[in-house]
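Model it.
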Amino acid sequence: MGDTNAKSKKNKIAPPQNLPLITIGAMAIVAVIVAVSGVFSYDRWITQTEQQQLLELSQAQVKKRADDIHNYILTQQQQLDAFSQRTSLLTALEAPNEANQSVLKSLQTAFPEALSFRLLDLDRQDHFNPNAERLSFTELDMINRAEQLQPVAPEARKTDAGQTLQFITAIAQTDVDSASGSLLIALPAAGLIERMNKFEPELGKSVIERQAIGRPAIVLQTGVGNRGEAQRHTIGDTFWTLQFTASDTLAEQAAQSPLLLIVLHLIIGAALLGGTYWLSGRYDPMRNPAPIVASTTVTARPQQANGASETADQDILDIQVADEDQGLLGLQDSILEELEEIESPSVSQIELVDEVFRAYDIRGLSGSQITVELAEAVGQAVGSEALGVGDNSLFVARDGRHMSEELSQALIRGALSTGINVVNLGRVPTPLLYFATCELPNSNSGVMITASHNSAEYNGFKMVIDGHTLVREDIQQIKSRIQSSDYFQGQGSDTEQQIIPEYIDRIFSDVALAGDVKLVIDAGNGATGEVAPLLFEELGCEVEPLFCEIDGDFPNHDPDPTIEANLQALIETVKETEADVGVAFDGDGDRLVLVTPKGEIIWPDRLLMLFAKDIVARNPGADVIFDVKCTRELNSLVSSYGGRPIMWKAGHSNMKTKMRETGALLGGELSGHIFIKDRWYGFDDGMYAAARLLEIMTLRDQDLDSLFDSFPCLPATPEIKIPVDEAQKFQLVEALIEQGDFQNGKVITLDGLRIDFPKGWGLVRASNTSAALTLRFEAESESVLEQLQQLFKRELLKVDNNLDIPF
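Modeled.
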């Protein structure tokens, strides 16, 4: 009995005096688990709950404030609409000024806080203020829509009196479906600010933004806030959006107490640590060593004749199964399914058309050659290229062509699948995409969906990687990535960013006009239609917009200003309005052509002369680059100013690459691309070039005709296009180089074939943007010019006698 008790006592496990390593390790693991659980629980039940609560509070605030602003605006508009029903207004449109003044007094009584009233007939004559200042582009747009009896949203405008709100109403006879005029009033923004200040500004920041033209123009702002994500809500019956950002005060209302969570985890932690300590005493590897089990692989054996297996008691998972039996057990299918899930993407099945991968961009027929599938693949390829050079974000923008938005969405979808983040700039001209890659911190890479100056049936992609505009070899690299599906894999995020105000502010801070300018802008229904009038109004110009409504059909003329027929409406408008200058932009805004008050066309190589004189004079020794299509007068002119002239290949990508290589401050092409590195970034920007031109005009106090009269102007042809098959155009030029007989002319094969003679020169090259040969000629006289054309015609017909040569 005593032995038994003694034995029993020996079998009892006493608490260890010194904790073994396994106990310490187990307790440490439990402590880590409890700590990780605490962090996870805090994030899940405290942080995320606070964020969700703050989000809900912010959404309630932004809706409440947007609704209140809408009510304020609606009240003002209804009051104005009611006043417009008075017959006295109709009478005032035709009555003498004395009658008008009585109506004006009635308006001042109804709107005592108003800053101005404008009663306008259909000829834009102001019956209240005959000598009033000119109407802005925004006001003209409001008037046009009011006269068409369309509902017109209020606008905001900065004036000498500060920020003002503008409302308009049509004046029309009862039962008549046309307007006789309009009534435009300006109210101080103070009334709306006072309304916004009643929103408890201590709860957050309220910002009214105008979003109609894709720019975050801040109309009004009150309060302070920087907590959580900004919430947006459309303000009804306006182009405005209210953005609300919570303050610390509102965030405090969303705060959650962590006390209960802490106490709970302390209790759980203590219980787990105690349990671990107790269990460690139950397991002592020195006292109860674990049995050593040999790791034996058992091969499946044949069954006995009676069907009994010799290894019937063996766990089936330990048995090696023959390959041919895996299918019977269902193992093969499951393995294949897993492999299919991790299988890399298959090689692209997209049908690629070689001719769309051009020297400067990817461009072709919209819908057949430039497809949504191609756009997504381009997004994957460009996103991968950008990630490869260290850019984590990609800017994406589009022009106003019909398919551009759909292509943009597909391209963004493809880019996001590589793991790169996308910053969507929306519908803007190409120079604004370039500006973003140079100025904004997000990225130095971007894609522009555009077909530039091509007609409506085309579309495409211009690409920038790490600040470098892609040229022929780079574009072939994009094609190779698509063909092999060589893409990065990941999931990026996309955001929208407005760039127009920052772009306008940057030019406004750089360019100063020393006088008044009346400017006609022909946007050709392209992407500059919204931006250019705003920019030049901001610079103080009187702007006469022409074809500034963005329309992917280009109903007035193709968006190519280098074709003389496309400039006829601009020439007529400049003469009719007695404007100081007319400017025509191409479809995406990176090119321009000028028209003088006399109606003369200033081709871009002559415009380059003016810029060379201005920039080289201030930067002696500066390089000036021009393409093979430009006048040879540039060579001697740049040299005479102390600069270094450099002839180079045509094409905006080639020119920008050469600008970077040489450090040139100025470059230009006959096609209208002007590259200014002096005070700017060196990319082609038709709007900035036009602004610098106006600066030179006003500083010298010279009209455009007299400015260019001082520069040599030899007889020359514009670019002449000869349609040829896309696949043959380069072969034809090569054949002309090999077989052409140009007597004693100096042969230049830098880009196509240019032959220089003592009294003139001619050029034939394959167009990189269309299925055509491009020709140009310049000579000392018209007779020599004709001789040059006939010489080239003779040699071209030797190469291909089916060419349709238009001279």
